[in-house]
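Field reference: sequence -> structure
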Amino acid sequence: MKTLVFAIFCLISTNILAQNPKLKITKIAPNLYKYTSYNVYKGNITDANAVYLVTKKGVVVIDAPWDSTQFQPFLDSIKVKHNQKVVLAIATHSHEDRAGGLGFFKAKGIETYATAKTNKILLATKKPTAQFTFNGDTTFNIGGVNIHTYFAGEGHTKDNITIWFEQGKLLYGGCLVKSIDSKDLGYIGEANIKQWAQSIKNVQKKFPDAKILIPGHGEGNKPNALNHTLELLSNTKVKP
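Structure field:
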């Protein structure tokens, strides 16, 4: 009987592990990496994309793993892979899949940043805030590399920003941009549906030469995800 119970336990454990990938890191441009973590949303294992940049002064992380159990393994992976420490972390909006690591990163001595809007939301919801704030359109220079933040307007949330890496022509759209394989807009509980389309058009105008686009969730990494997001928005009814 004990053998049968143990066998069933092993089978269930193996099945859970097979359905719960933890962390995937992919190089997408020189010194630029996309990393994907996973969590449960509406009963399904769901991915969350983010990026990090390796510089001679350390690593800059945009957003955090969605799964809090992966915070330390993520830092460990960077140390092993690049022999570098994370020196700065930026959250692109207040949701858990973006700002959930601020408290952990700050405790590790990493400088944490978010917009004043994001910090205000985090404070109101009694969640860990960033150590430093900036306005939506700011340029960080780390190790001689520029990182541009851009607030195109409200959309997925009132505080969502995008990140532009000039050297790779890479645009990190975060959750403002839906992937080309998205069937809907996902969570819209805090969205501004009326303004979202204009915000996407602002991004298109601001970064017309983007070669790579990383959405907040899903696959693709292609700039036409912007047009796909507009299509999804055009098919979404707006409450009067």
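Note: The chain has a mean pLDDT of 91.
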